Amino acid sequence: MDQAVLDQIFTQDYLDMLLPVEISDHFFEALYGDASDGAYDIRLEFISANDKRIVLAFNLTRRPGKCLVCSLTYGLPNVFFRHPLINIKGMVKKIEEKGFKVKKWQLGETEADSTSIHIIPFYLDLE
Fold first, then answer.
1. Left if phi > 0, otherwise alpha if psi is -120 to 50, otherwise beta: which for 72?
2. What is the 8-class DSSP label of residue 106?
3. Which end of the chain is more exposed for a tag (fewer CB within 10 A), N or C?
4. How far is CA 126 from the centre of its chain?
5. Degrees (nearest 5) of the Cα angle 80, 82, 88?
6. Contact 107, 80 (CB under 8 A)
7. What confidence tens digit (pLDDT) does each residue in 4-49 have?
8. Per-residue model confidence as pLDDT tens digits over 48-81
């Protein structure tokens, strides 16, 4: 698929529709009972795509006054995998509605980009 077409599909507005910005607060309300206890904001980012694979990422951005390193982000791929608020299966379904046929998807290990940003890769293998 043409890169310009992919760039038009995977805009930040589209990614924010797949994972709305307010999900971070809802996620922490469900986890801790209070959104203000959350250490980071979660945002979906487009990394790359070709005929065989789409690569997105869950960016975990440290909230002011919080410790991202202390918040156990390394266990999050297992949590995101099945958490109903993150709803990865729903994201995959919406991506397929754009004409992509997803054969399988998986989350990578959490990567510490810095003390303020951790990244969880989201791989979608295409048929």
1. left
2. E
3. C
4. 18
5. 70
6. yes
7. 778 889 999 999 999 999 999 999 999 899 999 999 999 999 999 9
8. 998 899 999 999 999 999 998 877 788 899 999 9
